[in-house]
Amino acid sequence: MPLAFAEPTDAVIPIHVVAADAVDDALAGLTPEGRAWAQAQGFAGSLGQILTLPNAHGGLEQVLVGYGTAAKRARDRFHMGAAARKLPEGTYEIASGLQGDDLDEAALAWLLAGYSYDRYVKPSSPIAGLVAPDDVDAARIAVIANGEALTRELINTPASDMGPDELEEAARTLAVEHYAGINVITGDDLITSNFPMIHTVGRASNRQPRLIDMRWGDMGPQLTLVGKGVCFDTGGLNIKPGSSMGLMKKDMGGAATVLGLAHMIMALELPLRLRVLIPAVENSIDGNAFRPQDILTSRKGLTVEINNTDAEGRLVLADALTLSDEDDPALVISMATLTGAARVAVGPDLAPFYTDDDGHADAVAKAARKVADPVWRMPFHDPYEAMIEPGIADLDNAPKGGFAGSITAALFLRRFVESPYMHFDIYGWQPSSAPARPRGGVGMGARALLEALPEMLNL
Q1: Own/partner pairs for 55-63, CB < 8 Å, 24+ apart?
Q2: Which of 136, 193, 238, 424 is the most buried (most CB within 10 A)?
């Protein structure tokens, strides 16, 4: 069911968002009975506090939602998503207290709060409806919410039902929806088409590896999105311990995120040419699995020494990035759940990204603040290049020592693309529930990129 705003009715209930320092003014606007009720309930405008005010017939007349202090609000985002989940059934409108970017965020939070993953259980009850505020671009916000919902749904689906076949089907469904072209190279055809590392990583699975290639648009600069589609990662012969394998259904989070972003771009009809490349594989264990100390030759011709079969994401991305470069795009962006080192560096909530272009970095950082999609720039630190050069081959897929793991992975990927390039090393998972973000799969960086693209590509 698409996430959507409610239609206006004659029984719309107004919501007044009240910051902690505006409580007195808010209460002054109530009836004497309303003020007495608010005082009896201890309404102080605390962040997330909700006060429902009845009418003479016992129904809801209006709602006050506490917005706390600026310091409290800065510790998280999507606060109105919590209110959406707490309010009783009905149709609401935000009547006062928010404007500008805050109102946009509140409207998006309300829609995102309506997402739940219920493929295998009885669907949860729908949340209260919100009429789109007059001062927001409701159509754009609904598109963004549904792009995020697509990303969440793909990540949340277990690998038993989200292998390379199903990921391809999701891409085909999106292509049909937006009249995009799509081509898929599968199995041994990857060898004859010169995608050797994608084939090598996925060949041990009975679910064939593939490269998904989707194109949309015929005018404007070309943007190429490359998403890591490792649908499950055992670690290969360097098998992961059980504690590390538990969330590996989300190792296709980069692919899920670029598909969500692609939906936003196409639905909003951005004036650009879009290409989406997804190497979709399952990193499994079998007699023909690739081995530690193997040396692989990539599509680009660079040789790679395998020092850990669990560092497979950069291998499949390398072949796809080489392809991305071959039609001279204006910008290539890769997204991948690539390294645990990124989580150690910035935790699960920030999306670290890499670029050599200061203008692009500034555009993304500014956009991220505007749309409440936190990111953090990391360095392509050239002195670390020596760490990915093993001597026996051009590149090492897993440098020893463990230092700067996210940076060395990003440097590895940069070797395969000459076009303007940006890389996101995302987590793709919400560890515990937060407003408008239930525990589970989550998009990271997509909304910031959508906001920044016009500036980065001069649209």
Answers
A1: 60/13, 60/88, 60/90, 61/13, 62/13, 62/14, 62/15, 62/16, 62/95, 63/13, 63/14, 63/15, 63/16, 63/87, 63/92
A2: 424
Cα distances (Å, whole numbers) of residue 443 to 36, 62, 148, 260, 427: 43, 33, 6, 8, 9
**Rounded distance, CA 322 to CA 311, Å?**
18
Distance CA 300, CA 21 (A): 60
Identify whether the C-beta of residue 226 lies closer than 8 Å to the C-beta of residue 333.
yes
Determine the Cα–Cα distance for residues 438 and 440; give it in Å rounded to an integer: 6
Q: How confident is the model at residue 194 (pLDDT cuts 50, 70, 90)?
A: very high
Tokens of 233: 């990662």
Once rounded to an integer, what is the mean pLDDT over residues 106-110?
98
Is residue 434 within 8 Å of 78, Cβ to Cβ?
A: yes
Assess if residue 2 is contained within a domain: no
Q: Is residue 430 part of a domain?
A: yes
User: Phi/psi of residue 382, each to 5°?
Assistant: -55, -35
Q: Which residues are catalytic?
A: 240, 314
**pTM, full prediction:** 0.97
For the segment 330-347, the average pLDDT, to the nearest whole number, is 97
> CB-based contacts of 195: which residues, under 8 Å, 6+ apart?
185, 211, 279, 299, 319, 320, 323
Q: What is the CATH number of the domain that holds 327?
A: 3.40.630.10
In a domain, 134, yes or no: no
pLDDT of residue 1 exceeding 80, the answer is no
What six digits make up the tokens of 223? 């943007």
Number of domains making up the chain: 2
Q: What is the pLDDT of residues 244-281, one digit of tens each?
A: 999 999 999 999 999 999 999 999 999 999 999 999 99
- Give Cα 366 to chain centroid, integer Å: 18
Classify residue 125 by its DSSP letter: P
Where in the sequence is the domain holding 371, given as residue range(s)? 142-457
Strands of 192-302, DSSP E: 210-216, 222-227, 229-233, 273-283, 295-297
pLDDT band for 125, please (50, 70, 90 cuts). Answer: confident
